Amino acid sequence: MRDRLTALKLFARVAHMGNFSAAGRELGLSQPSASRLIAALETDLGAMLFVRTTRAVSLTEAGATYLTRVEQLLAGLDEADHEVRGTGELKGMLRVGTPISFALREIIPRLGVFMRRHPALKIELRATDRYPELVTEGIDVSFQFGAQPDSSATARRLIQQRKILVASPEYLRRHGMPEAPLALEHHSVINSPAHPSPTFSFRQCEHHITVRPRNRLAITINEGAIASAVAGLGIAASSETSARTELEAGRLVRVLGDWDFGSIEVNALFVNGRAVKPAARAFTDYLIGEFRR
């Protein structure tokens, strides 16, 4: 039974990583041992789970179907172990997807307390400003800005923040402070993940204004947009927390702060139809509690 469970865990990791050696190392297995274990599983099932080439390992159609069932089973076992344990202790590996800025500014500073509460839990932060594929990358929970792009995921709101515009004092000395939204048409705006649209909409009481400012610089990571604004390259859109440190230090200044520029959500995404791993649920609950404080 133990060998079978190890084989199922190994199968799921090989499916996501496309590599027997890397998946085996996670479970303390050598590459030959990992290969033998998967071969034995395929023999028991009477079906090939992987197509093996010299360059890659990929799932067969039968393997893809089997993976869906196996991951539901592993998540259910994890949930059952957690309930029977009854101590609230979390074990195993928690894989978290997150934008780089959110990892650096919000998650990592709060990570120590959570990890001290659960010393047997390992956490892998996969920080990237692209939307990860939850299923294929084996991510247990992914924290993402804005609306969920993945129809196969379910979302839980983590926090909602105001969206703001920021610029450096040096940029504003050279180009002047915009006094109204229409003035943005005479400024350089940095296109960023916080606001990828070329149009900017503002509200103030009953007034609603949409402008299309010049966009001479586009950055695909939020940290790059903030750094570019600090360097005086233009006006950048950001969430309140993403620019908090620079605003408090005076390296950035709010622009058009008396206008409502909208808000941005941060959602926790889970694979739809799969039992949520206890560690993923607990970590999400912990972060929600921290933000509410």
The percent of residues in helical segments reads 40-55%
**CATH fold title of the largest domain:** D-Maltodextrin-Binding Protein, domain 2
Low-confidence stretches: none
Would you tell me the structural class of the helices and strands?
alpha/beta
In round numbers, the mean pLDDT is 87
Known CATH architecture of the largest domain: 3-Layer(aba) Sandwich
Radius of gyration, in Å, reads 23 Å
Helical segment tally? Answer: 9
The best one-word shape is elongated
| Count of the separate structural domains | 2
Strand segment tally: 13
Order of helices and strands: HHHEEHEHEEEHEEEEHEHEEH
* CATH class wording of the largest domain: Alpha Beta
Distance between the termini: 45 Å
What about the largest sheet?
Answer: 9 strands, mixed
Share in β-strands: 25-35%
Description of the molecule:
By secondary structure, the protein is of the alpha/beta class. It has two domains: 2-85, Winged helix-like DNA-binding domain superfamily/Winged helix DNA-binding domain (Arc Repressor Mutant, subunit A, Orthogonal Bundle), CATH 1.10.10; 92-293, 3-Layer(aba) Sandwich (D-Maltodextrin-Binding Protein, domain 2). The chain has helices at 2-17, 20-26, 31-45, 61-85, 100-117, 169-175, 222-230, 244-249, 278-292, and strands at residues 50-52, 57-59, 92-98, 121-127, 141-145, 153-167, 188-191, 200-204, 207-211, 214-218, 235-239, 253-255, 263-271. The strands form three sheets. Strands 3, 4, 5, 6, 7, 10, 11, 12 and 13 form a nine-stranded mixed sheet that branches. Strand 3 (92-98), helix 5 (100-117) and strand 4 (121-127) form a beta-alpha-beta unit. Helix 1 (2-17) packs across helix 2 (20-26) and helix 1 (2-17) crosses helix 3. The longest helix is centred in the N-terminal third of the chain and has 25 residues, at 61-85. The mean pLDDT is 87.
